[in-house]
Amino acid sequence: MDNPNFWKLRNCLCEPIAEMYSAAELLSGAVDAILKGDLSLAESLIAAADMLELEQSCKTLRNVWDRSACNGILTGHEAKQP
Predict the structure, then answer these.
(1) Distance (Å, rounded) from C-alpha 48 to C-alpha 73?
(2) What pLDDT is recorded for position 78?
(3) Cα angle vertex 72, ends 56, 15, to 5°?
(4) Fewer CB within 10 Å of terminal CB in the chain, N or C?
(5) Is 15 left (phi over 0), alpha (psi -120 to 50) or beta?
(6) What tens-digit pLDDT sequence spans the chain (82 residues)?
(7) Burial (0-12, 13-18, 19+ Cβ within 10 Å), 30
(8) In the prediction, which pLDDT does 60 show?
(9) In 3D, which of 49, 43, 44 has the Cα closest to residue 25?
(10) 67 contact partners, CB below 8 Å, separation of at least 6
């Protein structure tokens, strides 16, 4: 392993992307709008939070997870082949 930090504890396998924080703010605003009864605003904020970058980031994280699990890194066991 070339990266000396690979085995250090971390909160996530990948660094969070900026859009994650933007989406969290939008969804928080949507909750506030719902509590105020402004469902139209809530709907538009939820739609704005549905970002393609988040979907791509989740797919990347899934790929990292799958590779790690298949290599036994996360599970400590050899992965079963499908």
Answers:
(1) 36
(2) 47
(3) 35
(4) C
(5) beta
(6) 577 776 777 666 667 788 989 999 999 999 999 999 999 999 999 999 999 888 888 787 777 666 655 555 544 444 444 4
(7) buried
(8) 77
(9) 49
(10) none
Contact 45, 22 (CB under 8 A): no
Q: Which long-range contacts (CB under 8 A, 24 or more apart) does 63-67 make?
A: 64/13, 64/14, 65/13
pLDDT at 79 (0 to 100):
46
Amino acid at 27: L
Per-residue pLDDT, 59: 80
Percent of the chain as helix, strand, coil, to the nearest 5: 60, 0, 40
